[in-house]
Design goal:
The chain is built from one helix and 35 strands. By secondary structure, the chain is mainly beta. A three-stranded antiparallel beta sheet has the order 1-2-5, with no helix packed on it. Strands 6-7-10 form a three-stranded antiparallel beta sheet, with no helix packed on it. Strand 18 and strand 19 form a beta hairpin.
C-alpha cells in the first residue's frame, strides 16, 4: 500500500522501534485527544500517554503540521508528567489552548490537572488555578457564549480547595463562576460536556453518574445556564451504563447523538449509540438495528453537509457487520459504504476529528498499532474514502 505524504514526511529515518522502512508515523503510547488549530489549515494538537513521536521526544502533547512533521515553534520542554485527556482552543485571539488530564506538572512547573498554554507552548500565568483539581480532568468545553468561560468535567471533587463534584464553570482568569450553581453536583465521573446548539446557554453533561444535585440522572442530563436541571429534556430511566461522548447534530434539528457503553435508554434497546430529539425522546429515523457490539468513545459530524457522522470506539461490528473500531454512518443510521476501512484498526479508537481544511480528510487516534494490516502508531490521517492520504 502506498503511504501518505503525511506519513512519509514524519519518518526521519532515525526511529529504530520498527525495522520496516517507510512506515507511517508512530506515537509510542495511546493518543487520547486531538484538537485542530483555529484557521482551518489542518494542523493539529495531539495529546495522550505517549512520550515520543516518531523517535523524537514529545511528552504527552505535540503540535503537528499538516504534513505530519512536528512544529518546533510549540516548545513544551519536559511536557506533562501524566496523561493529557482534553485539549481545546481558548476563546481568545492569542492562539492559547487549555489542556486537562491527570498531570500535576507541566515542564517542571506545578499545574494540577489543568493549564492554559500560549501558542508557543509556555504556560499562561493569567489563568491561575491555585491548587487545581484533586482528581482527573476528562473534558474541557468552552462555554461558547462570548464570556471566555469554560466548563470542566472529570473525576474530581474539589477545585482550588472548593467543593465541585465532577463539574465546574471557570472564568477566563481561572476563578470559579459563582453564577453556575451545581449544589452537591454529580455522584460520579463526568466524561463529556457539550453546549446546546440552540443558543440557550444550556449544556448537556454525560458520564458515569446516577444523580445530579440529589436528583436521579442516569448518565445524561441537560442543565440550564445557572446549573439547574432543564426539565424539558426528559430522559426517564436514562442509560444503563456510562455515556462517553455527546455531539449535537449539524442539521439544525436540535438532536443529540449519545455514545457510550450502554445497551438501554429509558427502557428501549440502544446498543452504544442513540440519537435523541431535543426533548429527550429517541429519534426513530436514525435506525441502527443491532447497533454496536462494544463501547463507542467518540461520535462527530463529518461536517461536509451530508449529515453523516464518524463513530470511533472499541467495537468490532455494527448492525451485525464487521466494523473494526471506526465507521461512518448516514443520517438514517445506515453505514456509509463510501468510507471503506477494510479490516480497520487493530485496537480502540478514542478520537475522530475531521481535518476541517476543505480536504474531507479525518484524523483518528487511539490505542491501535495497525490500520488495514499496515503498522501505524496510534494516529493516522485518512481521506473521505478511508484510505491513507496520498
Amino acid at each position: 500500500m502506498a503511504l501518505s505524504l503525511f506519513a512519509m514526511a514524519c519518518n526521519d529515518g532515525n526511529d529504530t522501534s520498527n525495522p520496516a522502512s517507510n512506515q507511517p508515523p508512530r506515537f509510542n503510547n495511546t493518543v487520547l485527544s486531538i484538537a485542530l488549530l483555529p484557521g482551518g489549515n489542518g494542523d493539529v494538537y495531539v495529546g495522550g500517554d505517549f512520550t515520543a513521536y516518531n523517535g523524537a521526544q514529545a511528552i504527552r502533547i505535540v503540535r503537528l503540521n499538516v504534513d505530519g512533521t512536528m512544529d518546533p515553534a510549540f516548545a513544551t520542554g519536559f511536557g506533562f508528567n501524566s496523561s493529557v485527556r482534553s485539549i481545546v482552543s481558548a476563546d481568545n485571539p492569542g492562539g492559547n489552548i487549555y489542556v486537562g488530564g491527570d498531570f500535576t506538572t507541566y515542564n517542571g512547573i506545578q499545574e494540577i490537572r489543568i493549564v492554559r498554554l500560549d501558542a508557543n507552548g509556555a504556560f499562561d500565568p493569567a489563568f491561575a488555578t491555585g491548587t487545581g483539581f484533586n482528581n482527573a480532568v476528562h473534558i474541557i468545553a468552552p462555554a461558547g457564549d462570548g464570556s471566555g468561560d469554560l466548563y470542566v468535567g472529570g473525576a474530581f471533587s474539589t477545585y482550588n480547595g472548593i467543593t465541585v463534584n465532577s463539574l465546574v464553570r471557570l472564568n477566563a482568569d481561572g476563578t470559579v463562576d459563582p453564577a453556575f450553581v451545581t449544589g452537591t453536583g454529580f455522584n460520579n465521573t463526568v466524561f463529556i460536556v457539550v453546549p446546546a446548539a440552540d443558543g440557550s446557554g444550556d449544556i448537556y453533561v454525560g458520564g458515569a453518574f446516577t444523580f445530579y444535585n440529589g436528583i436521579p440522572a442516569n448518565n445524561l442530563v441537560r442543565l440550564n445556564a445557572n446549573g439547574t436541571v432543564d426539565q424539558t429534556f426528559v430522559t426517564g430511566s436514562g442509560f444503563n451504563n456510562t455515556v462517553f461522548t455527546l455531539v449535537s447534530a449539524d442539521d439544525g434539528s436540535g438532536d443529540l447523538y449519545v455514545g457510550g457503553a450502554f445497551t438501554n435508554y429509558n427502557g428501549t434497546v440502544a446498543n452504544d449509540l442513540v440519537r435523541l430529539n431535543s426533548n429527550g425522546i429517541i429519534d426513530l429515523s436514525f435506525a441502527m438495528g443491532a447497533g454496536f457490539n462494544n463501547t463507542v468513545f467518540h461520535v462527530v459530524p463529518v461536517g461536509d453537509g451530508s449529515g453523516d457522522v464518524y463513530v470511533g470506539g472499541a467495537f468490532t461490528s455494527y448492525n451485525g457487520l464487521e466494523a473494526n473500531e471506526a465507521v461512518r454512518l448516514n443520517q438514517n443510521g445506515t453505514r456509509d459504504l463510501a468510507f471503506s476501512t477494510g479490516t480497520g484498526f487493530s485496537n480502540t479508537v478514542f478520537r475522530v476529528v475531521p481535518a476541517a481544511d476543505g480536504s474531507g480528510d479525518v484524523y483518528i487516534g487511539g490505542q491501535f498499532t495497525q490500520y488495514q494490516s499496515t503498522p501505524i502508531g496510534r494516529f493516522v490521517r485518512l481521506n473521505s474514502t478511508g484510505a491513507f492520504v496520498r
